[in-house]
TrEMBL record:
Belongs to the protein kinase superfamily. Its cofactor is Mg(2+). It comes from Elysia crispata (lettuce slug). This is Protein kinase domain-containing protein. Residues 23-277 form the Protein kinase domain. ATP binds at K52. GO terms for cellular component: cytoplasm. One of its GO terms (molecular function) is ATP binding.
Length: 293
């Protein structure tokens, strides 16, 4: 009983402090291992924002000393239209509040669960936005290392917004790492096998998984058995659902991104130059289902 009373007072202290800074805290819109993301209203910005709240007390030492400083450093230096914008970082007692742009249409996974596979013309528009964001990040030597559908948010026009820099880090050439991070379902086979890997390739493989999910509304590999998944990856077993027609160009691009041989795997420049990315098509009309989530 006493614990719950103390907890309530602690929460109200936080909210009183944030209120003085011009933030009204709303509902929880996301939750991770050591953090919650809440909706909030900023008096200063006169709009809704997302507030990631990290509790240092409950976070392990490795997270506090390595991953959190990296996340904050990366977010401070990033400014791109297809990446969630950072407004402010507030530290109060044992908590860190990261105030960010609010993406009103949820995440890409929710979008696909609601609508099913995305038509290729629309996929191309959204995937180009992700590609632009990654060209920008890698250009300033930042690797995201946790790209997945849940970390691609959508604004009110359904534009992609890359979010969650919890595993992001700066890299210097030759940019080799042995650290496994992110989700196994989106990780390249060399990472899952514990082989030292070129850090930017972590993001490129994940982009291939994301594109496959966008086009097919399913996973390319069954991640319920990681050992079997690695075998399937190494045997190049990428198959496509018979119920969903996928263009030859899209399949070709996916085969090149989900290439096991790291020397032959597509780079961001290769992806940008691929014929599927450069189909001349009229701008996508915003239909009722896309425009009103």
């Amino acid at each position: 009983m006493t614990g719950s009373v103390v907890k309530e007072f602690a929460t109200s202290d936080d909210e009183v402090y944030l209120k003085k800074l011009g933030y009204s805290i709303g509902t929880t819109i996301g939750e991770g291992s050591y953090a919650k993301v809440k909706s909030a209203y900023s008096d200063k910005l006169q709009k809704r924002v997302a507030m990631k709240i990290i509790n240092r007390r409950s976070a392990p030492k490795d997270f506090k000393e390595k991953f959190l400083p990296r996340e904050l450093k990366c977010m401070k230096s990033v400014n791109h239209q297809y990446i969630i914008k950072l407004f402010e970082i507030i530290e109060f007692e044992q908590k860190v509040y990261i105030v960010m742009e609010h993406a009103g249409h949820g995440d890409l996974l929710e979008y696909i669960k609601l609508r099913g596979s995305i038509p290729e013309d629309r996929c191309r528009v959204m995937f180009k936005q992700l590609l632009e964001a990654m060209i920008y990040l890698h250009g300033i030597n930042i690797a995201h290392r946790d790209l997945k559908c849940e970390n691609l948010l959508l604004d009110y026009q359904n534009n992609i917004k890359v979010s969650d820099f919890g595993f992001a880090r700066y890299f210097e050439e030759p940019g080799i790492s042995k650290t496994f991070c992110g989700s196994a379902a989106y990780a390249a086979p060399e990472i899952l096998q514990g082989i030292p890997y070129y850090i930017p390739l972590h993001d490129i493989w994940a982009m291939g998984i994301i594109l496959y999910i966008m086009i097919c509304a399913s996973m390319p590999y069954d991640d319920s058995n990681v050992k079997k998944m690695i075998r399937d990856q190494l045997e190049k077993k990428v198959s496509f659902p018979k119920s969903k027609p996928v263009s030859r160009e899209a399949k070709d691009l996916l085969y090149h991104i989900l290439e096991v041989n790291v020397k032959r795997r597509y780079t961001l420049a290769n992806i940008a130059a691929h014929p599927w990315m450069n189909v001349d098509s009229l701008p996508m009309p915003e239909d009722e289902t896309l425009g009103n989530v």
